[in-house]
Amino acid sequence: MKRLLLLSLLIGLIPPVKADSLCTLISEEEPDVTITMNYVLGMGGGRGTLNYKNKPAFYFQVGILNGYGGQYYEARSFSPESLVEGKTYVERTNNTEKISSGRFMNFVGNQLGRVTSKEERKSGKLRALMPTLAKDYYYSIPFTEKGQYGRQKLSKKMKTILDASEGFFVNSGGCRKFFAYGWD
Length: 184
What we know:
Layout: H1 2-13, E1 22-27, E2 33-39, E3 46-52, E4 55-64, E5 71-77, H2 89-93, E6 98-103, E7 105-108, E8 111-112, E9 126-129, H3 133-140, H4 156-165, E10 169-171
Helix pairs in contact: 3-4
């Protein structure tokens, strides 16, 4: 009886995962490619993974630029350690390699979130575009060695991620916090 009481107290101390703290962006071109982030970096930022068929392919982070404003993204090789809470960015990404970084451009429907005047805003789906992701990913792939996949001979996974990186990622739920320059 004491064990059951202790177990129930311990379970009560574990915080539940909030559905609104998880964001999933799905590629418009390749639905097998998604970005899943947890809201941890304040308004307009978070970290998580870029996934292929629901398995992490890259560490992925979105944040707000200092000064000018706007948002940025960063994609790195994946390590489970990169998602560990309580560690600094350097500690979490120590064993990862930078794949790409650049502008995380917010759209509402077909309108740019940052520059559309209040008078011209129309409601629409929250969408994101990362203009340099495809190029950076392509050049991060090593040249093909005999009998292996590489830049000159892409695997299905590589081709799918490359195609997805060329286009928009759409909010499939829970992503409003990651769009600092969106509106409802």
